[in-house]
Specification:
The complex is a heterodimer of chains A (500) and B (355). With 500 residues, chain A is α/β, with parallel strands linked by helices. In chain A, 30% of the residues lie in helices and 17% in strands. Chain A has two domains: 6-92, 2-Layer Sandwich (Alpha-Beta Plaits), CATH 3.30.70; 134-497, Aldolase class I (TIM Barrel). Chain A has helices spanning 20-24, 51-55, 78-90, 180-193, 228-233, 260-266, 286-299, 316-325, 345-350, 355-368, 386-395, 404-410, 432-435, 440-465, 487-493, and strands spanning 6-10, 30-33, 38-41, 61-65, 95-96, 111-113, 134-137, 145-147, 152-154, 161-164, 168-172, 197-198, 215-219, 236-240, 251-253, 274-276, 306-311, 330-334, 343-344, 376-380, 399-402, 480-482, 496-497. In chain A, helix 4 (180-193) runs parallel beside helix 14 (440-465), helix 11 crosses helix 14 and helix 12 crosses helix 14. Chain A is globular. Chain B has one domain: Aminohydrolase, N-terminal nucleophile (Ntn) domain (Glutamine Phosphoribosylpyrophosphate, subunit 1, domain 1). Chain B is built from eleven helices and 18 strands. Chain B has a seven-stranded antiparallel sheet, with helices on one face. Chain B has a five-stranded antiparallel sheet with strand order 11-12-13-14-18, with helices on one face. The chains are: A alpha/beta (500), B alpha+beta (355).
Chain lengths: 500, 355
């Protein structure tokens, strides 16, 4: 017996048998029994997405975690027993979505931010300018100028780079994994906030071209939707080597999700599986990566910065140096907690390292190699709040990507069933009936609200730190202190213990 | 809180040490007695082609280690004690010694070489630190009030065409002799009132270029930034100031295209060199003296000018103390540098600079 994860509780007095829940539930947990003329609840089908709770007109429904899923044994916790039963039935890899839900200690939660008192006045962000603009791309170490005693003329050509008005950018999530409505909402929000969204590896739907100056186009191992036009239309190009939720493996969009529009955008036949191989089959080494970077730059006439995204793995610092030397203008590091629409559970939960350590060690190594200036660092994977953004930047990142947080703003409830294509909120689905549930304008407003709110919070913290420009926070580990970390962890982070 | 002051004779004519003492004394309530110091330019004309190392050592043993090390890497042309007198308010903690040295002929870059020598002593020789290492100049500093430190080092007896002075009220780092200002590296001296909130960022930036921040004060990073940007990157002084205290984006966005391109480039490339947090600094390298505020002016700074001199101080009172009727007194706006330069002919004569 597989114990269901959730229980659906219905208040009989409130329920009016209107069958709205039957209509809303895309997972078949609420079913209408024609013979008995009543609604039956199939607890084992429930994924805990709360769509029924939110839409029930009489608020009669409550979803609870099944109390039977208690840990009756310390070693054989309920989750292991459940997984074993599922695999004994299926003989398969367990699929899941989002980032890991294992309770690895969060390093962000062990870091505390400084503030000014007396000797150094805090700055009020509502009254004084507070700058959060960031420049992502390659920068020279030195500027060369002509100076005749009066006039200064800039001789060095800088860039290419992209300018974001906030260090918060929206992570790459593909059209295909997401609905067109979700993709559009994210693109609109990015434009509204003066920041960027990533296309993910599924190409860019033609209807989103008006937002392309705020879109980073991705080139992944499947090369879906990559055309000259696609490369040129975006603000920047990102080569995806790996992602935090599934380092070292490829991707798989089931044929059932490959609708006509997706097939056109991805340039694959309708209804066929879209398989992204684990490696790029033209990148088996760092030299090969250098060639792809060069090819993409050549194709776009050196006008677009090229980013390279990798999962935070054990040797991330050395790999990052290689990527910088291969010509990348920015390195995206996706940490252990990075999300996804579909991944084998074992990859999500056991492979990679936390983003906090990865930022610290990459930043340190790039400095040791004296190339930190030449390349920007974008951190992603489990950025949950504005404080995480501040801490990531203080550890050494230039900017961050948010993925799951942006989806939560759109309506996602983190039910971890993106891979089923049945997202009841219209986000991770291609079902026309479900897609209609997401209004792109409303979604864009909510995502933009989130980014603006976090940016306000970042400004508040900067003000308290007495810093009025985000570049003075970048790598400023002196303004962080740690609680409950070991000496070795502090050494990697380059952060002192609280009180020191 | 700290008090800072500077006087600069643009024609290179000597100014008696009593003047800078008077300036600092006028701001007596800005100090708590945990550090003060003076930088004087033009005080060793007879040895002006040699690096004058002011080295403070705790005991004879450290002094021997310093000398043993120096003999291995430079020619010591002359050495002598830095004259002091007993001041009961300042316990004698260091032996203060000056060495006029010449680096070997065949080295690639004399200045970088000398920086390494200084860094080595600060890093590896116990009980010794280099207070200054420029040519024809020296730094005198200790833990105490400015008037006591002045007495200790007989500041009144020196004549310099440029003086920087500082009295300390430390709030973030311990009060020790090495932590007193001016902070110096080669010809650069810095006096600083404030706290550099971006210290961590700045420190890690200069460390990438081989500088080591070891003196437990955020001020040394300012000297390294000037050395890096002005000497190594060869940027004009005015631009260096605009890197340290850049205009806001909202102003840059409205500039004419050429300027916008330049100022954007400065911020994009040198963002990690920006000094954030409240500061007023006076910096000199002997060729010029520059006063600079943070970009929202969170520390006081007043400047004045007369026919030959430029004066900069935390308070107007300090300037009025020594010049009753200057031509022009003003409070420079946030981020706008006050720059006083030696006249070109004087430059050649005093420093041997070819131009």
């Amino acid at each position: 017996m597989i114990v269901p994860e959730y229980k659906i509780l219905v208040d009989k007095e409130l329920c009016i048998n209107c069958r709205r829940c039957v209509f809303e539930c895309s997972f078949g947990a609420h079913v209408y029994d024609e013979k008995k003329k009543k609604i039956v609840r199939l607890h084992e089908k429930c994924v805990g997405c709360f769509r029924c709770v939110a839409t029930c007109p009489t608020k009669a429904i409550e979803i609870i975690r099944n109390p039977m899923l208690f840990d009756r044994h310390h070693t054989w916790k309920a989750r292991y027993i459940r997984d074993i039963k599922i695999q004994a039935n299926s003989g398969s890899v367990i699929l899941t979505a989002t980032g890991t839900d294992y309770d690895y200690p969060s390093i962000f939660d062990r870091l505390l931010i400084d503030a000014c008192q007396v000797t150094n006045p805090p700055i009020d962000p509502l009254r004084e300018p507070m700058e959060t603009r960031v420049y992502i791309g390659r920068k020279p170490d030195v500027i060369d100028v002509d100076f005749n005693g009066e006039k200064v003329k800039l001789k060095t050509k800088i860039g290419p780079y992209i300018v974001a008005e906030t260090p918060i950018m929206i992570a790459h999530m593909s059209y295909g994994a997401l609905s067109l409505e979700a993709h559009k909402a994210l693109a609109m929000a990015a434009k509204e906030c003066g920041t960027y969204m990533g296309t993910g590896e599924g190409g860019l739907h033609k209807s989103l071209y008006p937002y392309a100056d705020h879109i980073i186009v991705q080139v992944a191992s499947g090369r879906f939707g990559v055309t000259e036009e696609y490369l040129k239309v975006g603000a920047a190009i990102e080569i995806k080597i790996g992602q935090g939720a599934k380092p070292g493996i490829g991707g798989h969009l089931p044929g059932s999700k490959v609708t006509k529009e997706i097939s056109e955008t991805r340039m694959i036949p309708e209804g066929t599986d879209a398989l992204s191989p684990a490696p790029h089959h033209d990148i088996y080494s760092i030299e090969d990566l250098a060639r792809l970077i060069a090819a993409l730059k050549e194709a776009t006439r050196y006008k677009k910065p090229v980013f390279v995204k990798i999962a935070a793995v054990h040797n991330v610092a050395a790999i990052a140096v290689g990527i910088a030397n291969a010509g990348a203008d920015a390195i995206v590091i996706d940490g252990l907690r990075g999300g996804t629409g579909a991944t084998p559970q074992i990859m999500r939960d056991h492979v990679g390292i936390p983003i906090e350590f990865a930022i610290a060690s990459v930043d340190r190594r790039l400095r040791q190699e004296k190339i930190r200036n030449q390349v920007s660092i974008i951190a992603s994977g489990g950025i949950r709040c504005a404080a995480d953004v501040v801490k990531a930047i203080a550890l050494g990142a230039d900017a961050v990507y948010i993925g799951t947080a942006a989806l939560i703003a759109l309506g996602c409830t983190v039910c971890k069933r993106c891979y089923t294509g049945k997202c009841a909120w219209g986000i991770a689905t291609q079902d026309p009936r479900l897609r209609k549930r997401l209004n792109p304008e409303e979604g864009a407003r909510r995502v933009a609200n989130l980014i603006k709110a976090w940016t306000h919070e970042i400004k508040e913290v900067m003000g308290a730190l007495g810093i009025n420009s985000i570049e003075s926070l970048r790598g400023n580990r002196d303004r962080l202190r740690a609680v409950g970390l070991t000496d070795a962890e502090l050494r990697v982070l380059g952060v002192k213990v609280a009180g020191d | 809180m700290c008090g800072i002051a500077g006087i600069f004779n643009r024609y290179g004519k000597p100014i008696q040490g009593t003047e800078i003492i008077k300036m600092l004394n006028a701001m007596y309530n800005r100090y708590d007695g945990r550090g003060a110091g003076f930088a004087a330019y033009g005080i060793y004309p007879e040895y002006k082609e040699y690096y004058a190392l002011h080295i403070y050592v705790e005991n004879e043993e450290s002094k021997e280690s310093v000398e043993e090390y120096l003999k291995g890497c430079v020619d010591i042309i002359k050495d002598d004690k830095i004259p002091t007198r007993n001041v009961k308010e300042i316990p004698k903690k260091y032996i203060t010694w000056k060495y006029f040295v010449k680096p070997p002929e065949n080295i690639k870059n004399e200045e970088d070489y000398m920086i390494d020598v200084v860094m080595y002593i600060n890093d590896y020789i116990d009980g010794a630190f280099v207070a200054s290492s420029g040519k024809n100049m020296g730094v005198f500093k200790a833990v105490g009030y400015p008037w006591h430190v002045a007495k200790l080092f007989k500041i009144e007896s020196y004549k310099a065409y440029c003086w920087l002075g500082h009295g300390r009220f430390p709030t973030n780092t311990p009060g020790w002799w090495g932590g007193a200002h001016p902070f110096n590296i080669l010809n650069w001296s810095v006096v600083h009132n404030g706290e550099i909130s971006s210290y961590g960022t700045n420190k890690r930036y200069v460390e990438m270029y081989g500088y080591k921040c070891r003196l437990l004060t955020d001020t040394e990073v300012v000297a390294y930034l000037f050395d890096l940007l002005y000497r190594k990157h060869k940027l004009p002084l005015e631009l260096v100031c605009k890197i340290l205290a850049p205009p806001f984006w909202k102003h840059i966005d409205k500039m004419p295209e050429n300027e916008r391109e330049l100022y954007s480039a400065l911020r994009v490339v040198y963002g990690a060199a920006m000094l954030n947090g409240p500061f007023a600094i006076i910096v000199s390298n002997g060729e010029f003296m520059v006063g600079l505020n943070d970009r929202i002016k969170l520390r006081p700074l007043v400047a004045a000018r007369d026919e030959e001199h430029t004066y900069i101080a935390s308070e107007e009172a300090a300037i009025k103390e020594i010049v009753s009727n200057p031509d022009y007194v003003y409070a420079p706006i946030a981020g706008e540098p006050v720059i006083a330069k030696l006249e070109k002919e004087v430059l050649v004569e005093l420093l041997g600079v070819k131009k």
